[in-house]
Amino acid sequence: MTAAKRKAISGNESTARSKSKTKSSSEGCAEVAQRILVAEDSPVTQDLLKLVLEQRGHQVDVVADGEAAIRALQGGSYDTVLLDFHLPKVDGLEVATRFRRDNAGKTAARFVAITADIKGLLSHSANCENFDEVIPKPLDLQEVLGVIEREQSDALNVAKTTVREVGAGKANAPASALSAKYEYLRWPEDFNSERLSARGMHASLSDGSYDAIVLNEPATVRDLSVIWTTKTLHLLPIIDMTGSLAKQADVDGTGLSVGETGEIDRVIEAFKSRRAELHDDLVFSDDIGEKLIGRVFVSGGSLTARHDHTSRELVSFNTVLDFRSADKEIRDLLTRGLLAQDFFDRFHVCDRCGSSHFNVREECADCGSSHLEEEAYLHHFKCAYQGPESDFRQGDDLVCPKCRMELSHFSVDYDKPGSMLQCGGCGHATSEPAVGFVCMECDAHYDGDSVRTRDVFSYEMTPRGIEFAKGGHALQDGGNTALRFADLPLALIVAINTELKKHEADGTQFSLLNISYRNGREIEQAEGVRAFEKSREFLLEIFRNTVRKGDDVVKGNASDFILLKQTPNGEARAGLEDLKAEASSSLRVDLGLEFELFGPEDFS
Amino acid sequence: MWASAADGYNFLTSQSWVGILGLFWFTLVFDIPRYALAFVAAAFFGRVGAARTDVQGFAGRVSVVIAGHNEADAIERCVKSFQEQSRPPDEIVVVSDGSTDGMENTLRELQRRGAVDQVHCTHLRAGKSAACNLGERYATGEIIVIADCDCTYERHALKEILAPFEDPAIGAVSGNILVRNASETLIATFTAIEYLISISLGKQAAALTDHVTCVSGAFGAFRKTALDQVQGNDVGGGEDLDMTLRLRKAGWKIAFEPDSICYTDTPATFSALVRQRFRWERDAVRIRYRKHADLMNPFSANFQLHELYHEVEFLIFHILGAILLPVYVIWLFLAYGEMAVVILLSVQIGLFSLDLLSFILAAWATPKANSLGLLPYTFGYSFFNGFVMRNVRLAAYLQEWLFNASAEDEYLPQKVRLTRRW
């Protein structure tokens, strides 16, 4: 079946693609039925693959050795061929290589290698490029379905017609400051137009074979975006030998001389040991946000913002993810409490195109022209004429335009009491220019006081974020409502401890109310951090006036607390409505208040 | 006491007409004529107080120029009162004359909001004349209205002050100045009455005979061509009087517009009032009789009977009147002993009657002022103006004449004072 046919069946390729993505993990049929050849000598694997693939609606032919595979390939046209590397008679690699050679430029079939011996496969450095994908054994059926049913067109178009000349030997040759004891994935050799070489695919298995990604030629963040769409590559340190990523790479290797491997080794080792601590949920996650937190974790726990003139936002983080994508994910991570923010800088943002590249200039308040010339006012004491110096200029002389007297003595005849700006555009004169912003990307113009600003933060992983990185989803989901002492302000910990002791002694109840702000981030974005903080302070002040004397209202980090002493949870819950009413009637903005109630048993 | 009052009454009523003339010569010469003009004007021309009903909006371009030194607090209210005009100006130009109180920032904000069109800020004070000249240099209107920061303007003030310019012979129009803080102190109340009589009524009367000699610095409108002809303000102070006299010399007619009303704050304390009047009267003497002495010189090219009239009028009624008052009082006591008190009292009663009549006439002629509340204070005003302020003026005249005191006036920066020729 050709790509055109497939398109005709699915109606709309992009819809089909996105649907098949979601369906591949659920029960049901594949959006696009394929003809698949399975060449596998293990009967168990044969049966398994046949069963699963046919259930998905694909048409499956099974062969047990290499020769049969070649025959089958010659006899029929397949969309996908699953080849075991170690096949009897003719091995899978040979099958693929021969077929590609004989049918160069014609076939649309996609070759997927199935093997437990990835190293063996890769040792055939040139020929292994004839595979489009590699799936490791033992097989993860979800992965097999994912590979077969995802984004076929890219693979179809690229793989069939070109045989890439990539040499493993070249890739393994150590560059100047690279220590020979590590395996490196190299740019651009192992990456090609958003697709990975077999070595790249191998690295994405996270079996520990590769230790770092090395840039031997200049690359952009966009070039490297593939590391965020495949599994695990984002967890490798990026060593930039070209300086093109300098601020976003983990090591800038440009200044290192031959043999000076210490710094790179240190980073690689640090990544390695942190990678070992990272939970598999995050290692294999498909979610960019979770990938990001995983990356932050292995790279040392912080996401540091830095000025970067090459980014349109003028800022980038210490990771190879563009600011905009990162920012989107970070918001979510913040609300999940995995990151804590620290103000970095405030940038002006073009409302039209989002760029922060501005020309900031003094301009005419009337016509907006920046063609301003400064000119002194000149005051002739004797006749009270006061005007621009040019009124007086006659060659080298100053002659009063009113009384024709020549001014010869500064401070006796005349002085210059100030200066003004004359607009070359409209002739308007003023003593104070306006400040204007012109977007360098879309030419939009903003007045100094109307241009929007964006606050950029650096981020640190919170204890909760670290816990998530190490413990995965199970801990995170269960830990959502469980309060941890470490998260609480010190004053509150002391107070709760006192209450707990009382509770143990005579059963006195207490309630801890946790107040969180669902709309906090939104308000910060729209009105600024200070506006949100102010509303929050105001709210707490209201609560302080509402609760009984002796009760504590404590400001926390991301959320705030009210400790109601000698109050059972039931009673507290009854009073909750009053608090809510009080808050909503006094506040101008909707903070998205959420209350959670805890009692002594939550701390046992 | 009643006995002596009765004696005094008998004394006065027993006098012949010639005797009365001998007793009251001062009042008859220096006071009565002062009022006469207004009364005559009111009686014979009947135009005083007749408000125009069909004012057409002036079609030309009008610029308002406001110059001030350290007026950060006042400027916004002033500008707003122009924005609120029924005939708004086409342009507002503000000059901050070496202000150090943040006026510059206020102006910048006003300009940003579009409330004013041009802002010029200097860092060294140049004085009101040069500051206004700077504003006029950049003003683009064919009529230029000069306003003061600490004044506010009635809604139709601009429309009214522009109306006389339909006559191409009119070079400038003076607005009517009323006191905004009349109820603040007794001094301010007296000043309010004084303004009403001397400006609202006095200038209306003067205008009937084309003798308006001062277009108030607080509110006046000038034809740009006239301003250019006389080359703007000369070195101050008293630049408003000076400018008007120079316009008159140049042949321009000056009008007064009673319905074009500007409100200003006057000094609320006696000492502040005295300081202000010292400055005004010194400047008046300097400008009229030093700078413009040629108006009284029959051999000068500028000599005109018309101009001689107001110069002489000021000399007689203001200066001579002030000089001869003490002489008159001393003479009365020397000649009539205790009876002098009775005579002065009767003089005061007479003056009060005249002032009361003037006030009523002024109030009638200036209906917008709504000034009847001031009526009970007229008697006090009459004494205050007739005896107290006349002596203040006398002191100012003597100071200027004998010591050239206006040369030391702090109102002008020293660098400018040093260059002044008069």
Plain-language structure description:
The complex is a heterodimer of chains A (604) and B (422). Chain A is of the alpha/beta class and 604 residues long. In chain A, 36% of the residues lie in helices and 23% in strands. Chain A contains 21 helices and 30 strands. Chain A starts with a helix and ends in a 6-residue tail after the last strand. The N terminus of chain A is likely disordered. With 422 residues, chain B is of the alpha/beta class. Chain B folds into two domains: 148 residues, no CATH class; 213 residues, Spore Coat Polysaccharide Biosynthesis Protein SpsA, Chain A (Alpha-Beta Complex). The termini of chain B are far apart. Chains A and B meet through β18, β22 and β23 of A and α5, β3 and α6 of B.
Characteristic key phrases:
heterodimer, A: 604 residues, alpha/beta, Rossmann fold, 4 domains, 21 helices, disordered N terminus, B: alpha/beta, 15 helices, 8 strands, 54% helix
Rg of chain A over CA atoms, rounded to whole Å, is 34 Å
Major sheet of chain B: order of its strands? Answer: 3-2-1-4-7-6-8-5
Overall shape of chain A: flat
How much is the radius of gyration of chain B in Å? 22 Å
Distance between the termini of chain A: 64 Å
Low-confidence stretches of chain B: none
Based on CA inertia axes, which overall geometry of chain B fits? Answer: globular
Q: What percent of the residues of chain B sit in helical stretches (DSSP H or I)? A: 40-55%
Largest sheet of chain A: 5 strands, parallel
Structurally, how many domains make up the residues of chain A?
A: 4
Mean model confidence by pLDDT of chain A: 80
Q: CATH top level of the largest domain in chain B?
A: Alpha Beta
Q: Tell me, rounded to a whole number, the average pLDDT of chain B.
A: 88
* The CATH H-level homologous superfamily of the largest domain in chain B: Spore Coat Polysaccharide Biosynthesis Protein SpsA, Chain A
